[in-house]
Amino acid sequence: MPWMQGYPYYLIMGSVLSLYMGVNSYKHHNTPGRRYLWILMLLVSVIFAATAGEILSASFQAKLWFRNIQQVPLLLSTIFTYAVIKDYISRSSAGLNRRLAVISIPVVLDILLIFTDSYHHLMRSSVGMNTVAGVSGIVVHPTVLNMALIAYDQLFGVYAVFLLAVSLQSSSKYYFKWNVLLLASLFIPVASIFLLPLLKITIVGFTAFTYLPPVLIAYFSLFRDPELSLYPRAKKQIVEKMKDGIVLTDRYNNIIDVNEAGELMLSALAERQVSSWVGKNIFMLLEQYGEVAVYYYQQIEGQFEIEVPGTPDVCYGLSLIATENNYGQAVGMLIVIRDLSEKKRYERELLYQATVDDLTGLYNRRHFMRLVQNYAMQDGSGKALLLFDIDDFKLINDTYGHMAGDQALVDFSKKVLKLYGNNGIAGRIGGEEFAVCFFADSEEAALREAETFRAEVQKHIVSLDGGLHIRLTVSIGIAFTERCDATFEDFYREADEALYISKTAGKNRVTLGRRPVLMQVRK
């Protein structure tokens, strides 16, 4: 057969091709379903190379040495074929490395016995040479122990075929054809173990060629097929340097790729540190964020803002984007995570400046008016507005200076916040005029609350710089309503008229709006 003259070189070409695919596939070795394929490709490359060495060697000892070397990747290739299929169909390697270590123990024992067979002859009853079509190689007759260990090894190849066949039931239409093709190619090396003796094919290294179809199919389906490739080649240069977190999940909801920023953000959201999020199920994270999980589960695109647990003022924006193949079938989700903390801080600062009086920390006049207008009524109660002035405040400025006046305003505002921060709305209307809105059961209840407040202020001591201490008093006007449609202007006008009565009647007193002066409560 003339073609047999170049047979060793065909083996070398197969070795180089498998080596190229293995090295090129290593770039994806952290991707679920692709973690072990590069190892299998390298093992096949060594099988080809060792077989070529066996054929090209001139001496019997050299041929036997290459034959022994060939057994190492040949036995391990079955184990890693199982690992490739198991990882591919489950998209998770959790515990798989430990399982591989355990099931490889008999295989390692087999390899050790093969290399030391010349001392104990437990593995081979005889060793000789055979020449077919001008190609010479080693022929061995295995012992029962050797055949038992080989059978153990081949069981994992059969099991890998079984796992892939069962997975066809849940494969989508597009992936089904690739999985069928992969199954057919994988059947070749598994079936050859049983068929070669029956067909009496004794060509040296023929077994190596049976591994080439599944390796080629797996390589082109998992790494070269454009329908399965969700990222362009420039991903590493673009995505890895982004400040936004980029997370890609597959149809099994497992994370198949994530950039460095995404790793950090996922750990922050999940409140746990992991060595890598690749291979983890995204629901480990989403179970803490119900609305996001619902959108994700239903493959609905959406945008969310999430407060990061345990880290105040840190907020992430999360975007869900469905990834589809050319057939319109969902193949996973793209999750983009952006740090919105600075934006949120800027928004809070703008909101604070727009709503809060910068000196006292109380709401400013405009925002206070808006809040009072929208202050919803409670069942069985009314709404009261207390409008009050600090009595003789100009005297404080004239006596102690405007800095002292500002200190008095700040101190007084803290007292107001302490009393009404959780029980109403407090604001600075302007200058030394303040207002509080709260719920009250009746006019009498509002009047009693106002008198209690006036008495609290009178007892309060304001500390100024230089060790000075002063007491303040306030004049208060009250407006009360049980109407839901009352406008702030009417409410304010009524309280302002009552405040005017309190100030002109001697100050440091409370007046209820729309009531005669005799209804005033005096100290």
Explained architecture:
The protein has helices at about 5-25, 35-55, 60-90, 95-105, 105-115, 115-120, 145-165, 175-200, 205-210, 210-225, 235-240, 260-270, 285, 290-295, 340-355, 365-375, 395-400, 400-420, 445-460, 490-505; strands at about 125-130, 135-140, 245-250, 255-260, 300-305, 315-325, 330-340, 380-390, 425-430, 435-440, 460-465, 470, 475-480, 510. With about 525 residues, it is of the alpha+beta class. Helix 2 packs antiparallel against helix 10 and helix 17 crosses helix 18 (about 400-420). The model is unreliable at about 225-235 and about 515-523 (pLDDT under 50).
What average pLDDT do the residues reach? 83
Quaternary status: single chain
3D shape = rod-shaped
Low-confidence stretches: 225-234, 515-523
Largest sheet report: 5 strands, antiparallel
DSSP strand (E) fraction?
15-25%
What is the number of E strands?
Answer: 14
Strand order of the largest sheet: 4-3-7-6-5
Q: Tally the helices: what do you get? A: 20
- The helix content, as a percent range, equals 40-55%
Radius of gyration of CA atoms, rounded to a whole number: 41 Å
Separation of termini? 124 Å
Going by helix content, strand content and strand pairing, the class is: alpha+beta
Write a concise synopsis of the structure shown.
With 523 residues, this protein is α+β, with helices and mostly antiparallel strands. The chain is 52% helix and 18% strand.
Quick tags:
523 residues; alpha+beta; 5-stranded mixed beta sheet; 20 helices; disordered C terminus
Question: In terms of topology, how is this protein built?
Answer:
Layout: H1 7-25, H2 37-56, H3 60-90, H4 96-103, H5 105-115, H6 117-120, E1 124-132, E2 135-142, H7 144-167, H8 173-199, H9 206-210, H10 212-224, H11 235-238, E3 245-249, E4 255-258, H12 260-270, H13 283-286, H14 290-297, E5 302-307, E6 315-324, E7 330-339, H15 341-355, H16 365-373, E8 382-390, H17 393-400, H18 402-420, E9 425-430, E10 433-440, H19 443-459, E11 461-463, E12 469-471, E13 474-481, H20 488-504, E14 510-512
Parallel strand pairs: 13-14
Antiparallel strand pairs: 1-2, 3-4, 3-7, 5-6, 6-7, 8-10, 8-13, 9-10, 11-12
Helix pairs in contact: 1-2, 1-10, 2-3, 2-10, 3-5, 3-7, 7-8, 8-10, 17-18
